[in-house]
Amino acid sequence: MRENIGAEALRRVVDPAEVDALLSAGRTLPAVFYTHSEISRLEDQLIFRRAWQLAGTVVELARPGDYVTLRISTVPIVVVRDKAGILRAFVNVCTHRAQTVIEGDGNCSNLQCGYHGWTFGLDGKLSGVPGWRTAELPPFEELGLKPVFLEVWAGLVFVAIEPEQSLMEQLGELPAVMRSTGYDFPFETVDGMSFLGQYDYHIKANWKVYHENSSECYHCPTSHPGTFGELFDFSRVHLDALSFNNGGGSFGPFPLRTEMRDRFPAEKAGSQYGYAQYFVWPNTLIVTGFVGEALFRMEPRGSGSMRQVGRGYARPEQVDAELSNLIDVTFAQTTSEDIAIVERVQEGLESGMYSSGPTSADRETLLRDFQRRVWASLRPGFE
Ligand code: FES
Ligand SMILES: [Fe+2]
Q1: pLDDT tens, residue by residue, 182-196
Q2: Is the CB of 119 under 6 A from ligand 1?
Q3: Residue 68, helix vs strand vs coil
């Protein structure tokens, strides 16, 4: 664990009374929350190490040896299904000299560190050390990978380092909201879901800038007219936005544009079911669509950069190749438009010429609640 950051030093970075006043006046968090390394360190301690993070789903973690890796802020994590079929999560840092043990995702028969070849079983126990007389080593039991918490909800696999709440407490009203908006919990209930792959974007912006951008569609008509706007009618989307007291929220489903409806499977095309987004505090986005699902995690990398990790899944419905290509292209273009936006926002935040701006009570509702939750989490660090 990093050392505690002094409250006095933090109060020199920003005055907590000023932040209280800005948020209660409906204004944004001050720019320093997106640019200062001390704020990032505080987020690491008070948000990321305490919150559950979505690692993946039971679809790609179905068989013994299936694994995925992620980072919870500064901590590398590996999630693996062991030989007995139990899902386990460990700190993905070798107990020899600290290299990350395993990268990416896939299937493995054991967890072998690529540096000097130490081998850990799928249960995290050290099982092999090449080229050493074991008498020179501390007992193997003391050199296993450090376990972290893991819980599965609706086929979604979450991990946490020092959770301050149970997973269900952290999710709060989200399951009920998902149900009420027509989400069918495909990772639990739909046969034939398949994992398509992972998409990685390294983005020069604070993680909150991207997350906030995803939390409103106020920008959609001006920023995505030719991409997202071709598929969906988002003119009324802000009216459907729901936010919860735990920093989560949802919006959508966006209805499809009328002219697009006949291109989708009949049972979907006639309904209002469309593209919807669900936010899980602090940094996860669950996206559900007509033919697939996507999960996004905004991993911070210091104050001015982040990694957006997306995982895509196909529903078993067959759609024509032209349509599926249209969806892929649309989402790739929309993402690149969003990345360009957030990188320019980050430049503005770092310019020293902007401190805080007004937000709309109905167009930026989720964003407001998210910022309030960020501040509620960080404020104890200032006292
Ligand atoms: S650091 Fe992993 S084997 Fe040496
Ligand atoms: Fe966008």
Answers
A1: 888 999 988 888 998
A2: no
A3: strand
Q: Read off the amino acid at residue 38.
A: E
What's the N-to-C CA distance of the chain in angstroms? 20
Look up residue 209 and give its two tokens: 């800038």
What is the dotted CATH code of the domain comprising 172-377?
Answer: 3.90.380.10
Ligand number, closest to the Cα atom of 131: 1
Q: Which one of the ligands is nearest to 216 CA?
A: 2
CA distance 171 to 350: 33
- 53-150, CATH topology level: Rieske Iron-sulfur Protein (2.102.10)
Q: Pinpoint the residues of the chain covered by CATH 2.102.10.10.
A: 53-150
Q: Confirm if 60 and 156 have CB atoms less than 8 A apart.
A: no
Residue closest via CA to ligand 1's atom 4 equals 116
Q: How far is the CA of 337 from the centre of ligand 2 (A)?
A: 7
132 lines ligand 1 (CB under 6 A): no
0.70 exceeded by pTM:
yes
Q: Which two tokens stand for residue 383?
A: 């006292």
71-87, pLDDT tens digit by residue? 998 999 999 999 999 99
Ligand 1 atom with minimal separation from the 113 CA: 2
Sequence-distant (≥ 6) Cβ neighbours of residue 359 within 8 angstroms: 26, 27, 28, 367, 368
